[in-house]
Structures are given as C-alpha cells and as structure tokens.
Amino acid sequence: MPATYEAALQELEQLVGALESGQLPLDELLGSYRRGAALLEFCRGKLQAVEDQIKVLDAGNLKAWTTE
C-alpha cells in the first residue's frame, strides 16, 4: 500500500482514468480494478481513523467542518 493517503488517492485517480479510457487489455483490467478497490479501502480506512481521532479530541461530539 502507499505510504500516505495522498499517494493512494493519486494512484486511484490514475487507475480510474485508465479504466475509463477503455484502453486497458482485458487481463490488466481485472488487476487494475482489484488494485483500485484496495486503494479505495485504504483511503476509507485513513479517513475513518482521522474521524475517530477528531471524535476523541471533541469529547465524542463530532462537529461540522468549517473553513471559516
């Protein structure tokens, strides 16, 4: 797996582009799909870990994220 969420996301975006292009040979298509599914699970796990940490920091009350 990639070292960071950002690296996983970048690879996932590249895989999606390749899959959507329709240019992958059939034998690579399934492998790329599996890799994409693994990357997606990795990203979801990282996001869940961050959300869990935020809940702890906010004493269990998850607050809406604002940029203001």
UniProtKB/TrEMBL annotation:
Q: Which superkingdom heads the taxonomic lineage of this protein's source?
A: Bacteria
Fetch the InterPro entries from UniProt: Exonuc_VII_S, Exonuc_VII_ssu_sf
Q: Which terms are listed as keywords in the entry?
A: Cytoplasm, Exonuclease, Hydrolase, Nuclease
Pfam families listed in its UniProt record? Exonuc_VII_S (PF02609)
In short, the EC number is: 3.1.11.6
Q: What broad class describes the main subcellular location of this protein?
A: cytoplasm
Q: Which molecular function GO terms apply here?
A: exodeoxyribonuclease VII activity
Subcellular location, in the record's words?
Cytoplasm
Reaction catalysed by this chain? Exonucleolytic cleavage in either 5'- to 3'- or 3'- to 5'-direction to yield nucleoside 5'-phosphates
Q: Which HAMAP family match?
A: Exonuc_7_S
Q: How does it assemble?
A: Heterooligomer composed of large and small subunits.
Q: Which PANTHER family match?
A: EXODEOXYRIBONUCLEASE 7 SMALL SUBUNIT (PTHR34137:SF1)
Entry similarity comment = Belongs to the XseB family.
Q: What does this protein do?
A: Bidirectionally degrades single-stranded DNA into large acid-insoluble oligonucleotides, which are then degraded further into small acid-soluble oligonucleotides.
Output this protein's name: Exodeoxyribonuclease 7 small subunit
Which species is the source of this protein? Variovorax dokdonensis
Q: Which gene encodes it?
A: xseB
